[in-house]
Write a structure and sequence with these properties.
Length: 227
Amino acid sequence: FVAQRLLFDGSKGDFMRVGAQNGILLALSFRDRDGHHTYGSGVMVGPGLALCAAHVLHEHDFYGKLQRDDATLVVQAPLSDGGMLLWTVLRMVLVPDSDLAVLSMALTSRYPEDRRFMTASLTTRMPGLGDVLTVTGLSAVGDGTAAIASNMHIGMAPQFQPGRVIDRYPLGRDHRLPGPCLAVDCAVPGGTSGGPVFDSRGYLVGLLSASYDGAEISFVSHLWPAL
């Protein structure tokens, strides 16, 4: 497992270009009797470990279904060569007083040929006002729901938006964002909640938690509570 910093420019050393699709950026899919529902994003942070937005797990009662074994959570990680890693979630831990969840996963697809996995490099630094962050995620094409079949096609579009920190809430903002979070002046498409957010040095600082339609503002949950 190799930690990488992600930047728009540069691919040498411990840098990797944002959009390289190297298995760090994840899409969440919930499978139940009604089909395969892809919405929400996540990020690889360690061996078989990922972070996602807690509120995504609660939507459409999927958290309850997962606890009752009425649904399965599959995590998809696109690769630069057109392939994809598939992870099955074995355990979920909701981080108290935050919009974060930790996923413990097992690989259910073939190993990469070089048996190498990429993870995001973390920082505990709280970005300052005016710092430029990169908000990323994977959004499903269409409504994200497909009938379960032996040969399914799911379209996913990577999203990358730069935004400047316009406000900070070290002690939380409201009941939706009770943990440390940031306001960023960029809008992102729906369905990308939980997408990783990187600072100007390429380090992971948090996850996308909320965005308002018609307003150029998004909220980022800082990853500190999950550590």
